[in-house]
Design brief:
The complex is a heterodimer of chains A (about 160) and B (about 200).
Chain A (H helix, E strand, L loop, with lengths): L4 H26 L4 E8 L16 E9 L5 E8 L2 E12 L2 E6 L4 E3 L4 E3 L5 E8 L8 E8 L3 E9 L3
Chain B lengths: L1 H26 L4 E2 L9 E4 L4 E3 L7 E7 L6 H15 L2 H4 L2 E7 L7 H9 L6 E4 L2 H10 L4 E4 L9 E5 L2 E4 L5 E5 L5 H13 L1
Parallel strand pairs in B: 4-5, 5-6
Antiparallel strand pairs in B: 1-10, 2-3, 2-6, 4-9, 7-8, 9-10
Classes of the chains: A alpha+beta (about 160), B alpha+beta (about 200).
């Protein structure tokens, strides 16, 4: 079979496209999220009454999730030893009405962006605390991300 | 001569206008002024199990907030702001100011729960609860929106959506002002001091 210039051109083009796709695929494989958790703090909560009886109480954690990577990630769930259940909640204001909602299905952390949990917005809700949170206390919180996996951090209890 | 007199008069008028402007800025409230409302008395139970009647707080400026102790975000934020406000007042001023936190979740906010919750912030803060029959007229009287969110599948059980403004009542118990829950403490202190002058 004789190779005409046209066939050569088509062959070279196909080869270039194939190489380009492989390079892209390699780059994609290297694209990962780079998650860091910053500014982690909680408010103090007293769960015992004067007689030492424990009452059902909730707490809160605020923090910043920084994604310096090239790919997005997703916060899937959280756990902590200081409470029974940890949920992600969001406060929304409608004029002077406050509405608090549980955020289901995880929270996207886009590539190159920071998502801040702060009063009046996203917050980590610690449900049914097992002990009081006293200013200066530290306790562990685990955040599970879809791609990064589990990140363990310490939250410090601030002043009321 | 006449020109000079006219100029002097104009300068004097300008100075008076500037002073009047400053005066009006100094005496104006930082919060939103509320429409005139007649005095609405109520009696509820405080965190020590004692009855609290608004009408007995004669001559005091009252800060009022409607919240619930299961709320971890906006309600503690407000109490944190109140703590800064309370600590900015002189002891003499503080004697004439009441901080009143009324629950929107009486099913869970017992006096002992309110006591533990408020103790973290300041011992002077008053937490009030009561029966639905006692609380409903208070919510209605102050136009407070309060709705249990039964749809949420949160492990905390139900949540309560509610009005989250800080109200200031004057020394006659008449509501005068509204601040948002993220108001600057110094703005609230400013308004308390103005209300104490009346």
């Amino acid at each position: 079979m004789r190779l005409t210039p046209m066939f050569l051109k088509i062959g070279l083009l196909a080869l270039s496209i194939s190489l380009f796709c492989q390079i892209q695929a390699c780059q994609k494989a290297d694209d990962t999220p780079k998650i860091e958790i910053e500014n982690i703090w909680s408010r103090p909560v007293q769960i015992e009454n004067e007689d030492g009886r424990v009452m059902k109480s909730n707490g809160v954690v605020y923090l910043k999730i920084v994604n310096d990577g090239e790919a997005p990630d997703r916060l899937m769930s959280m756990t902590s030893i200081v409470c029974d259940v940890v949920e992600l909640h969001e406060t929304k204001m409608n004029d002077d009405r406050m509405m608090m909602q549980k955020v289901d299905g995880g929270l996207d952390i886009p590539a190159g962006e920071t998502v801040e949990f702060k009063p009046g917005g996203y917050h980590v809700m610690l449900i049914r605390l097992k002990r009081s949170l006293v200013p200066g206390d530290r306790f562990a919180l685990q955040l599970v991300f879809e791609r990064t996996g589990t990140i363990k951090v310490d939250s410090e209890v601030g002043q009321p | 001569m006449q020109n000079k007199l006219t100029q002097s008069a104009a300068k004097l008028l300008l100075a008076v206008a500037v002073l009047a402007g400053c005066q009006s800025r100094d005496s104006s409230f930082k919060g939103t002024e509320l429409p005139e409302m007649e005095f609405k008395d109520f009696t509820l139970t405080d965190q020590n199990g004692q009855r609290f009647t608004l009408g007995e707080q004669e001559g005091k400026v009252t800060l009022m907030f409607f919240g619930f102790t299961y709320c971890p975000d906006v309600c503690p934020l407000t109490l944190s702001t109140w703590k800064k406000v309370r600590e900015s007042l002189t002891e003499d001023e503080a004697q004439k100011v009441e901080f009143v936190y009324i629950t929107v979740d009486p099913e869970r906010d017992t006096p002992e729960k309110l006591k533990a919750h408020l103790a973290v912030f300041h011992p002077d803060f008053i937490g009030l609860t009561g029966t639905q029959e006692e609380l409903q007229p208070v919510y209605a009287g102050y136009g407070v929106y309060r709705e249990k969110d039964q749809i949420s599948d949160s492990a905390t059980g139900y949540l309560v959506n509610h009005t989250a403004s800080i109200y200031l009542l004057d020394r006659n118990g008449i509501w005068k002002l509204k601040h948002s829950n993220d108001a600057r403490p110094e703005d609230i202190v400013h308004d308390i001091r103005l209300l104490l002058k009346y």
